[in-house]
């Protein structure tokens, strides 16, 4: 290095600064003033408050100085200091010892403030061969404008003394001379150098260290460099064996921009001791975060994030040294690669990512090699992202020599599902070396994984995660004469027109294994029609133990395909012109139009083979295991073998689709042009039809037999099974199926619903409403018999609880007094009213719940009404006899729209009541004629509206006895009753109001009898209603038990002779509670009005009825 006068330039030569010893006083250098100098021991002490350095040269002495000398030059060791509170200004301070072996130990507790522009800088410590040690207090400062604000330099190539700078006070360089270092430490020889401290350093370049021995740059202060051509830390190391360590933990901030050098940390070393960059602070606003160059070994472990424009970490290895980069922090690069290495000889390169987000415009990580260097990438966490719209890739390994390339991703993600790599996810290329790639998750907009191996280099790819391309292949691999082995334990997902996985080799073997639980598929619609695997060149072995969607194309060598997982394919599967063995021990689903073949194909299936439509095998087929096809009336799925086919005792499994099958129809499921041998062991048929297997010389087929409809029911009810069994019986008896064939195509809920609609359950509602109508009529007759007595007790006596003093005239005229005197005075008058006529009405509504789980009956809602007229005769004071006629109707409906019915009703009955004291006995006989009609709709083979009209007769009788017990508040009459009914319908048939009438039923005649018992009490109380009337309140509470509650009909389909079955309707409850309440208003003119409301309640039914009557007696 040359130093000239103040108007001359400063010119460094080479990467390292070179200085000559200062044996004489510089002619135009700064001077120190007011610093005391002694010769023995040599010392420089600046103790005045203000030291001004002048630009005069008056002292050439070795160990002396005047105030305006330019420098201190002396022999021997020098101890120097700037005392606390002292500021050295002007041209700064330079201390130089020219004697070999002499050193400098300098302490700065004050400040150096260089105010005059000089070349060398603010504080310079120079020796020939001796050591230099600099210490500064935390409050000390150096402000300079020259080459370096603080300089430590040994000038001789024979130097042996170490250079040590403990910089704890801030250093600033605001000049524009040369590199403008804040701190510059340099040696011409291989001495050890240490720079550390807590100082904040600012300059065009922060720290420059140049030497050949062990070199350490530490410290924790922040560095700010201001020049686009500057560096945060610049280390130049020669060819010696010294070690370079950079472990500066403070931040490094550059000027920004993408031009110039602009490097956060730069290390150049051609030595052999190794370069270690570790534990660094945040690097930001730089063009290059870290730049390494040389032939040494480089080990880089960032301790914080890096943000740059062109490169995050860049290493240029020009020799046999190794490169090892381990990053667990964010690296963000806006226009280049985040991590890039270059090796041009034999040094191996290893990049390891353990965490952080590594994001770049082009490759997130790029390794390039020549010679025999091996390229190795490891990833256990973090994310790689690349946004460049070209094939640079998120991860790029390119070895153009003879070395190998290895990717070992065990965690983290290359690209993200939401933000995939714009280019290739993983790109690996070698010219002659081997490729070994292991991946976890890779997301790319281009090819997910792309490998190219030249020469005889082999390719091994193993995937444990998800590799997904949003626009292209998931994986593509090319090899020369080396082997290719691909194993997928995760998911390979492609989205382009090319194969999900492609492997090409000129002559090497190819092995592809989709392991158990793994997936190969396109993410586009109908992935089974897409291209899944393509190989060419060498012999291919394809093994699928997982799930595979798509077609396979193989080269012209001898190939083997083994499927013991699930393979779904539609379209052409071409296996080249060589011989191919296809073995299926898993599940192979082949869509319509699928072909297998090429050269010589041997296809063996012992798993499940499911062709859809027509599938072609161009070769021979050996078929065992399960062969599954779908059957339709127009044909069946089948396989056409252009060769021989051998059946080895497997199972033919057939699934019925739709109906319309014809008994005796043959459906071909396998055709072999070269001949068929062997048989299936059995036929497993799902559906309502029955069938058996048949064979001829070239075909295997399924022959349709008559099916059992009842066997197709799953958890069918009794009604459904009865209907199905009736249809089965008729068809098995030789009846033609006709429109009933459509039922056999149904299954599950559809079949169950169809059988419900066919059952004709609506007919069972006729008995329910007929019984309910007769109950209303007989009840009205019985109540009228009681009302004929007008509330009078037996033998004409009045009610025992009547109050004499409160009986109005009307009451007295109606009932005899309890007074014996009055009884003798007024004769009994009951027989004076022998005749009575009356009219009334009744009505009811209710619901009877069906039993839908076992029996299969449905809810019925009966409704009845009637108008009654009658007359009675008082045969004696204790006996009333009468009769009545009624006309009315009924209607009902079934739930689920299964039909409805109605009837017109005519009723006639006789009744009588006899009293003995407080006891009574009453009875009634009745007959009803019912003109009934039903209607239901069947939606099978069109819409059929089916109606029926028929007559029904009901016979009923009732006997009741009770005993009336008067109390002070109300009269209580415990009673018991027995009532019997029989409802009879003749045989009748339905007719079609619209539709074909194919499902019309013919019903058998049926009589349904039931015996009803009642145990309960009646309650009544009579009060005066003015002077001309009495008002009687009546109520009833009873337990009702019916012996026969079943409602069933027997029927058969008119179009199917022999199809007789029984259908059950909703059953009436056996036990229920009867509650009634009513009132009767009796006028003195013998006119009586009555009304009653009755409810019957049970767990499965509920109903309410009402009666009203008008009576006149004379």
TrEMBL record:
Record's signal peptide: 1-23
Keyword annotations of the record: Signal
GO cellular component: outer membrane
InterPro entries for the chain: Autotransporte_beta, Autotransporte_beta_dom_sf, OM_autotransptr_brl_dom
Pfam families: Autotransporter
Autotransporter domain: residues covered: 830-1114
SMART domains from the UniProt entry: Autotransporter (SM00869)
Gene3D superfamilies for the chain: Autotransporter beta-domain
Protein name, per record: Autotransporter domain-containing protein
């Amino acid at each position: 290095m040359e130093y000239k006068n103040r108007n001359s330039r400063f010119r460094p030569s080479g990467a390292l600064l070179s200085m000559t010893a200062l044996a004489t006083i510089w002619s135009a250098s700064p001077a120190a003033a007011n610093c005391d100098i002694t010769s023995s021991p040599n010392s420089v002490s600046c103790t005045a408050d203000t030291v001004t350095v002048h630009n005069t040269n008056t002292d050439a002495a070795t160990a002396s100085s005047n105030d305006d000398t330019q420098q201190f030059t002396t022999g021997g060791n020098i101890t120097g200091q700037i005392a606390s509170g002292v500021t050295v200004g002007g041209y700064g301070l330079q201390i130089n010892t020219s004697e070999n072996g002499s050193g400098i130990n300098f302490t700065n507790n004050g400040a150096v403030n260089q105010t005059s522009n000089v070349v060398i800088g603010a504080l310079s410590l120079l020796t020939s061969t001796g050591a230099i040690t600099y210490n500064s207090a935390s409050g000390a400062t150096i402000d300079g404008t020259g080459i370096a604000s603080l300089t430590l330099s040994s000038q001789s190539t024979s130097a042996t003394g170490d250079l040590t700078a403990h910089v704890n006070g801030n250093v600033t360089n605001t000049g524009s001379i040369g590199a403008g270092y804040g701190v510059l430490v340099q040696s011409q020889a291989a001495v050890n150098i240490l720079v550390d401290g807590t100082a904040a350093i600012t300059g065009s370049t922060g720290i420059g260290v140049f030497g050949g021995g062990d070199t350490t740059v530490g410290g924790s202060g922040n560095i700010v460099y201001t020049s686009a051509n500057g560096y945060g830390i610049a280390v130049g190391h020669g060819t010696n064996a010294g070690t370079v360590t950079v472990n500066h933990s403070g931040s490094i901030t550059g000027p920004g921009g993408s031009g110039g050098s602009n490097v956060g940390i730069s290390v150049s070393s051609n030595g052999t001791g190794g370069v270690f960059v570790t534990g660094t602070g945040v690097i930001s606003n730089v063009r290059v975060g870290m730049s390494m160059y040389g032939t040494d070994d480089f080990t880089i472990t960032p301790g914080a994030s890096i943000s740059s424009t062109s490169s995050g970490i860049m290493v240029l290895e020009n020799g046999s040294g190794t490169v090892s980069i381990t990053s667990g922090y964010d690296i963000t690069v806006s226009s280049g690669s985040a991590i890039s290495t270059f090796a041009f000889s034999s040094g191996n390169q290893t990049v390891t990512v353990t965490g952080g987000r590594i994001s770049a415009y082009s490759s997130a990580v790029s390794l390039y090699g020549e010679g025999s260097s091996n390229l190795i990438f490891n990833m256990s966490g973090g994310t790689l992202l690349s946004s460049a719209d070209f094939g640079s890739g998120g991860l790029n390994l390119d070895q153009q020599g003879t070395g190998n390339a290895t990717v070992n991703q065990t965690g983290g993600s290359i690209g993200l599902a939401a933000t995939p790599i714009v280019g290739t996810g993983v790109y690996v290329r070698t010219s002659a070396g081997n490729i070994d790639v292991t991946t976890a998750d890779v997301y790319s907009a281009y090819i997910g994984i792309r490998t190219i191996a030249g020469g005889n280099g082999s390719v091994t790819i193993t995937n444990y995660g998800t590799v997904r391309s949003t626009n292209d292949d998931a994986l593509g691999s090319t090899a020369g004469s080396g082997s290719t082995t691909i194993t997928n334990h995760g998911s390979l997902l492609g989205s382009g027109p090319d194969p999900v996985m492609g492997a090409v080799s000129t002559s090497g073997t190819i092995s592809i294994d989709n392991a158990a639980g793994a997936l190969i598929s396109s993410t586009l619609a109908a992935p089974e029609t897409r291209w899944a695997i393509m190989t060419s060149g060498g012999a291919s072995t394809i093994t699928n133990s997982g799930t595979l969607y798509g077609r396979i194309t193989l080269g012209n060598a001898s190939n083997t395909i083994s499927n013991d997982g699930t393979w779904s394919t539609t379209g052409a599967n071409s296996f080249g012109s060589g011989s191919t063995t296809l073995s299926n021990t898993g599940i192979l689903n082949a869509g319509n139009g699928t072909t297998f073949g090429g050269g010589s194909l041997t296809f063996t299936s012992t798993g499940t083979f499911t062709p859809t439509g027509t599938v072609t095998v161009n070769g021979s087929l050996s078929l065992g295991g399960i062969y599954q096809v779908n059957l339709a009336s127009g044909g069946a799925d089948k396989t056409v073998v252009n060769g021989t086919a051998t059946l080895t005792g497997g199972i033919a499994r057939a699934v019925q689709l739709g109906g319309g099958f014809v008994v005796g129809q043959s459906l071909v499921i396998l055709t072999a042009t070269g001949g068929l041998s062997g048989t299936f062991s059995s036929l497993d048929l799902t559906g309502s039809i029955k069938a058996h297997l048949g064979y001829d010389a070239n075909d295997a087929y399924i022959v349709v037999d008559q099916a059992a409809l009842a066997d197709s029911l799953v958890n069918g009810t009794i009604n459904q099974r009865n209907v199905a069994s009736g249809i089965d019986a008729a068809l098995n008896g030789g009846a033609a199926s006709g429109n009933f064939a459509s039922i056999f195509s149904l299954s599950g809920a559809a079949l169950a619903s169809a059988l419900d609609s066919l059952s004709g359950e609506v007919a069972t509602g006729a008995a329910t409403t007929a019984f309910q109508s007769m109950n209303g009529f007989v009840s009205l007759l019985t109540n009228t018999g009681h009302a004929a007595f007008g509330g009078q007790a037996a033998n004409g006596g009045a009610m025992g609880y009547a109050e004499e003093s409160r009986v109005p005239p009307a009451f007295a005229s109606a009932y005899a007094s309890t007074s014996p005197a009055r009884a003798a005075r007024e004769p009994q008058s009951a027989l004076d009213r022998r005749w009575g006529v009356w009219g009334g009405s009744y009505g009811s509504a209710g619901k009877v719940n069906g039993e839908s789980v076992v029996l299969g009956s449905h809810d019925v809602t009966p409704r009845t009404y009637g108008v009654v007229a009658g007359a009675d005769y008082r045969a004696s004071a204790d006996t009333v006899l009468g009769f009545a006629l009624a006309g009315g109707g009924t209607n009902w409906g079934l739930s689920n729209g299964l039909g409805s019915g109605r009837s017109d009703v005519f009723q006639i009955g006789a009744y009588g009541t006899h009293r003995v004291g407080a006891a009574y006995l009453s009875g009634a006989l009745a007959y009803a004629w019912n003109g009934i009609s039903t209607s239901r709709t069947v939606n099978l083979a069109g819409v059929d509206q089916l109606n029926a009209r028929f007559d029904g007769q009901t016979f009923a009788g009732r006997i009741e006895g009770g005993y009336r017990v008067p109390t002070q508040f109300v009269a209580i009459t415990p009673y018991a009753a027995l009532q019997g009914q029989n409802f009879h319908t003749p045989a009748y048939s339905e007719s079609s109001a619209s539709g074909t009438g194919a499902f019309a039923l013919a019903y058998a005649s049926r009589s349904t009898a039931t015996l009803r018992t009642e145990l309960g009490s009646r309650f009544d109380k009579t009060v005066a209603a003015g002077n001309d009337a009495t008002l009687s309140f009546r109520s009833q509470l009873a337990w009702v038990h019916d012996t026969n509650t079943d409602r069933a009909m027997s029927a058969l389909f008119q179009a199917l002779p022999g199809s007789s079955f029984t259908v059950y309707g909703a059953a009436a409850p056996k036990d229920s509670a009867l509650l009634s309440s009513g009132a009767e208003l009796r006028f003195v003119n013998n006119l009586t009005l009555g009304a009653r409301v009755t409810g019957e309640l049970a767990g499965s039914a509920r109903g309410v009825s009402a009666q009203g009557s008008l009576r006149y007696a004379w």
